[in-house]
Design goal:
Elements (H helix, E strand, L loop, with lengths): L11 E5 L5 E5 H12 L3 H10 L13 H7 L2 H24 L4 H16 L12 H11 L1 H18 L2 H18 L5 H17 L10 H17 L1
Antiparallel strand pairs: 1-2
Helix pairs in contact: 1-4, 1-5, 2-3, 2-4, 3-4, 3-10, 4-5, 4-6, 5-6, 5-9, 6-7, 6-9, 7-8, 8-9
Length: 229
Amino acid sequence: MGKLILVKLGSSASQCTPYGVLVSVPTPLYWLIAYLLGSLPWALWITRRLKGVDIRDAGSGHVTTTNTIRQVGWAAGLLVFLLDFGKGFLAVYLARQAGLAGWALAMTGALAVVGHCWPVFAGFRGGMGLATAGGGTMAVSPLAFLLAFATLLALVLVVHHAARGAFFAAWAAPVVLWLLGVRGDPLWLTAFLGVVIALRFTVDWNRRYRELWLDRSTSNHTQSRQNRI
């Protein structure tokens, strides 16, 4: 067995090899990986593949699960959700396994959401970040994920507006976790994610939402009428 070499955590993360040696990997590399993973615009690629449309120029214009459902249907929307959730989960999981913790781990999750909202692979026109943020939170703590989701759902129902509810939930979720005794990585991550989510949802502050199924059926009905004319 080779001699164990310890690497101080700070500007780098460390990972144990099968030979008992800890290999230093710069922390910013995990941040870059997180951003690139987040930048994978699954909704754009899937809707373009299935319908031949650019989702950024249809519906809400957002590269999101809900806009995918409006354009293509529920099956495609579910696939987009799972992929967006998964990329947030993977980014945080890999960083945590490598030894990142606290603010460095939280930055990893936040950059995955930044990549989703402003993706380099889609002209920096992306989604809203909730699914990716959810995946990152799940990778750290299922309890934190459930508490944050419950906070989001409650506030959306109270204010009757998805964007404003998400904005308020982004700030409220870390407070809820703290009040319920959640500390450490989940609290760090929720706080960092909240800043990105709140910033992103300001663009839809005055948007008028309709029910998801009504929005899609109305759009399809209008399109069919135009085709008949």
